Amino acid sequence: MREIVEIPLTGTNGSSGMSGHARAVATVHRPALSPRSTTVILLNAGHVPRNGHGGLPVNIADTLCEQGWPVVRVDLPGLGDSPGSLPERIEAFWLDLKNGAHASLAAGVSDWAKDALGKENIALGGVCGAAVTAVFTAHRYPGKVQSLLLIEPELFESEPAAEAEQPFAGSSGAAEALSAAEAFACDCKVTARLGPSWRLMRLLSRRRGKYRWLGRLQGMILRMVSTPGEIPARANLALVEAWAEVAGRGVPSLVMTAEGLLWEAYFRQSRHAVFRGREDGVLHIAVPGANHVFSNAAAKAAVLETVPAWLEGIQPEHQ
Amino acid sequence: MTTARPSTKPSHPGQATCAAAETAGYFSILGERIYYVIHRPEVDARAKVLLAGPLPDERTHAHLTWIRWARLLAHRGFEVMRFDYSGTGESEGRFETATLSRWMEEVVFCLERLGGDGSKPVVIHGLRMGGLIGARAFQEGYGDAVIAWDPSISGEALMIDAARRQQAANLVQGIAGGVPGPRAIAARLEQGLPVEINGYTWTPALWGDAKSWKLFFPDPKAGRPQLRLHLGRRAAVDPTSSLETVPISWPPFWVVGHRLIHEVDSLFERSLRFIDEVAMRRAPEVS
Prior knowledge:
The complex is a heterodimer of chains A (319) and B (287). Chain A has helices at residues 56-66, 90-98, 103-117, 129-140, 172-182, 197-204, 216-225, 237-248, 262-275, 297-314, and strands at residues 2-12, 19-29, 38-42, 71-75, 121-127, 147-151, 253-258, 282-287. Chain A is an alpha/beta fold and 319 residues long. Chain A has a domain at 2-152 and 293-318: Rossmann fold, CATH 3.40.50. Chain A has an eight-stranded mixed beta sheet with strand order 1-2-4-3-5-6-7-8, with helices on both faces. In chain A, helix 9 links the parallel strand 7 and strand 8 (282-287). In chain A, helix 1 runs parallel beside helix 10 (297-314), helix 3 (103-117) crosses helix 4 and helix 4 (129-140) packs across helix 8. In chain B, the strands form two sheets. Chain B has a ten-stranded mixed beta sheet with strand order 1-2-3-5-4-6-7-10-12-11, with helices on both faces. A two-stranded antiparallel ribbon of chain B has the order 8-9. Chain B has two domains: 2-154 and 214-286, Alpha/Beta hydrolase fold, catalytic domain (Rossmann fold, 3-Layer(aba) Sandwich); 155-212, no CATH class. Chain B starts with a strand and ends with a helix. Helices cover 36% and strands 22% of the residues of chain B.
């Protein structure tokens, strides 16, 4: 049974102007019988409403709910049905999102869900931007997220406005970025390669540039120009750092990527660079034929089959 | 669920976020729970507006602008209801059982719920597919006025358009398994086979029903208020059809673009003027 709720939140969503008290509209899928110990929270896939692309979050929620997991699909302030302000352009919104600006709001949703639904564990995630916020939330608020559901996490910088902030190799900024990358809280040392391929990846990773028409070629090019074992150029270092800390801490993650796309290439290379094959608690499923927003039939089928099994597997003692 | 809203005067129509209250919930219609939101003004409503939205993949991108419009209307003293068609958005039900005719029944149901005792004029406002459905509901006698923003000219054109977007998206991402074009999709549906488009399964029943839908407005000489707006890059009026083109930022707000806050001030102002006229026309009768 679905019900509509309103979640009071305190926090900020970055430069968009929302700060202080806010409200988020959410849909709760509440099972009739719920022996599970985990509530699943699905965040907005970027700026789209909580029902997502092709209704995937609704499909996930209905499927999990039938099997006893409560699910909360939430519109963070300003998005979907929730009141709040937003920047005029998508690039500005993404810059905030990729700096983890929505993490405090997601943490508030986690608090609310624990109180309202009475489950001790939270699995947080969603598609693309939702996965980015979920990682930052787990990193900054460790007690509020017990597992991560990351579909097509965007581990790279993608917007032109970020270019001014991204250091080139050899600049003092590059040294700072490397230093930050090396200061990870886990025992996994990470270094970032900011070499000649940075300019190429800057072009390839733009969400709205003409190079997006390269499709799966983007992933192939990244694999060709990157050095194995190093974080690829133009990676979102703060996000990779956050993810490395969380995974290094043993927080279980399910990562699903569209096989061959740029998101997968960044994830694979970053994971390899950070953990070099060591156990990281991550179950990675690359889905052939999936599109980036995971709305097509191949993507949906894989998600609806994998997510319940993964949840069952990570906390069997609580089921 | 009812949400109280702070009353803040917008600096221009595009920034309105100030409905007095928003109530969200579910109606039961024909065995399905349909998600709706009512935006109530802080004052006694001058008229009521039912928003009939676009196809679900266009809803994804149009949502922010559609809600800004709903909140602006509430701020200007109109009661607004918006809802999601069964099997889409927040509504329950399966898309696989949907047809435009079924969705029209939901529009009619919502119109009757919104209209209440009939003391206030009711405007049907449709976007894209909602314009097609809203125009037919109006033609069949529902509502006191109709607005259509860029209505689809037919059910078939609507679905072909969606199929083209899917084809383009698949080409961009190099999805394996081929990229069927609109003709191949239509042929498959004609053969009685379902097709997946933008995350939704189109059935032959949906296709067959859609083909019977053509955009049709009543004769304006009959005196029932109607406003059909084409949305484009520049303002224009077609002298042969009197069809107005209202400028908006491009690409339009129902497809992927660069903007979260679209430039739609001209569109909002033109539409508000029309709804104001409808409310004023009815006001003497009410008093």
